[in-house]
Description:
By secondary structure, the chain is mainly beta. It is 6% helix and 22% strand.
Amino acid sequence: MKITISSKTISHLFILFLAFYFSTPISEACHRIDKAALLDFKNKITSDPSNLLKSWTSSSNCCTTWEGVACDSSGRVVNLSRPGLFSGDDYITDTYMSGTLSPSLGNLSFLRFLDLSNLKELTGPLPPELGRLWHLTHIFLDTNKLNGSIPTTFRRLVRLQKLYLDGNYLSGVLHSTVIKSLTSLSELGLSGNQFSGSLPSSIGKLVLLTKLDAHGNKISGSIPPGIGKLKSLNYFDLSDNEITGSLPSSLGGLSELVLLYLNHNQITGSIPPSISGLSSLQFFWMSENRITGGIPASIGKLSKLQRLIIENNKLTGKLPSTIGNLTSLTEIYFSNNYFTGKIPSSIGKIQNLQTLDLSRNLLSGSVPPQIANLRQLQTVDLSFNPLKLVGIPTWFAKMNLFQLMLAGTGIAGELPGWLGSSPIGVLDLSSNALTGKLPHWIGNMTNLSFLNLSNNGFHSAVPVEFKNLSLLMDLDLHSNNFTGHLKTILTKSVQDPRGRFNSIDLSGNMFMGPIDESIGEKPSMSSIHSLILSNNPLGGSIPKSLGKLGELLVVELVGNGISGAIPVELGGAEKLETIKLSRNKLSGGIPDKVLNLNNLQEFDVSQNQLSGRIPPHKAKIPPSAFMDNPGLCGSPLPPCKNS
C-alpha cells in the first residue's frame, strides 16, 4: 500500500529529530511523577498492535529506554511522541492504538511536545488537565476519534505554537476566551471535525498565525473583519462549512496569504476590490457559494495567482480584461454563473493556462482566436453559452487539446475533418445542431476516452472503424437518428487495463437488435456501470449474460419491443440499483432473485404482459412500476384472487 506523508508529518519528524538529538544531556533518572503519568496513559490504551509502548516498563528509566519519550537534564519529560505514522531510513509504518487520553498526562508539567497523531482509534474527550501543561509548544492529536469540545483550560497554553486537532469528532463552539489566549500560535488545524458556532472575532489577536485550517466543520456566521490583522497568515481554509455574510474588505490586507479556500459555504455579497492586496496569493477557491456582483478589475494585480476557482456562484457582468495580467494562472474555473458579454481576448496572454472552464454562463459573441496562442492549454469547456458558433473555430486544429467541450454552443453542420487527426481524449459536442453521418475517420481518434454527441441530428450507422477506439470508456449518443446494429459498438477493442466501458447511452435512436446474447461476455463490457438502450427498435429478448456484468448499476431497456421472460440470471448482477424495463412485450413472472437484489432502488416493468404474483421484496417500489400488466397481482398491487 502506498503511503503519502504530508508536509505536516515531515515537520513533526524534523521537530522530533531536534528534540532527541539537540536536547540537553540527561543526568537524572526519570521523575517519578512523570513516570507514573506515562504508565497511567499506557494503562488506558486497550490495543497496541505495533507495540509502540512495549518499551514502557515500570522497571526501566523512561528517560533513556522508553521509545518516544525524551527528558531534560533534570529527568523531567519534555517530549512525548508516539504517532501512528512514522518512518525510518528505509521504511514507513502506518499503525494505530486504541484507548483514551489519560487525565494523568496533565501531570507532565514540563512537557513541551505532544504528538499522538494518526493513531486513528484514540477516543474520548480531550482531558481538561492538559491545560496545566503551560510549557507546551506543540500539540498533535490529529487523525483520531476524539470527541467533546476543546476544554476552556486550554486558555492557559500561552506558549503553544502549533495545535493540530484535525480529523476527529470534536464539537462545540470555539471559545473566544481560549482563542484570544493562544497568542504564540503559528499553526491551527481544526479541520474535519464538527465544530459549530462562529469564528470568534478574537482570532484577530493571533498575530503570529501563519496557518488556519478549519475546513469540514459546521462553523457558521460571517468571517470576522479582524481576520485582516493576521499579517503573517499564508494558509486560510474555511471550506465546507456554513459561513454566511459577505467577504470583509480587510481580507485584502493579508499580503502574505498564499492559499485562500472558502468554497462550499453560503457566502453572499460581492468580491471586494481590496482583493488586489493579496499580492502573494497563488490558490483562490471560492466555488459553491452565493456570491453576486462582478469580478473586480483589481483582480488583475494578483500576479502570482495559479488557480482561480469561482464556479457555482451568482456572479454577473463582463469578465474583466485585466484577467490577462494573471500570467501565472494555470486553471480558470468560472462555470455555472451569470457572466455576460464576450470572452476577453486578453485570456490569450495567459501563457501558462492549462484549463479554461467558462461553461454554463451567458457569454456571447465569437471565441477569441488569441486562445490558440496558449500552447499549454489542455482543457477548454465553453459549453452551454449562447455563443452561436455555427462551426467549431478552425484554429482549434492548431492546438494540442486533450479535452474539448462545446455542448450547447450552436454548432451546426457536419463534424470537421481535422478532429480525425487531433489528440483529443474527451470530446463533448452534445446539444447542438450537428447533422450528417458519423464519419469513418472517427476511428482515427484513438485517444478518445469520453465521447458525447447526444442531442444532435446524426442519421447514419456507426462506422466499423469505431472498433478502433480502444481507450473509449464513456459513450453518449442518445437522442439522434443513428441506425444499424449495436454490435459495432459493443464489440470494440480494448487496451488493457483501459478501454472497458463505464457507461453507454444509446437511447432515443433507431438502432436495431436483437441485443447480442453474449453481451455480458464481451471484454469491452466487463466493467460497465450504466447501460441505457431505451427507445430503440431492438426487439428480441433480454440476454441472460447481462447477469455476468458484476459492476453494472443501471440497466434501462424501455420501449425496445423486447419480448420473452425477464431472465432470473439478471439477478446475478448483484450491484444493480436501477432496472427499467417498461413499455415492452415481456411475459411470464418477475423473478424473486431480480426483485430482491440488495442494492435495488428503482424498478419499473409497467406496460408489459407480465403475470403472476409479485414476489415479496424489501425495496420501496410504487404501484405505478407494475401497472398495465393485466396478469400481475400482489403488493403493492391488489392481492391475488387465490390468496
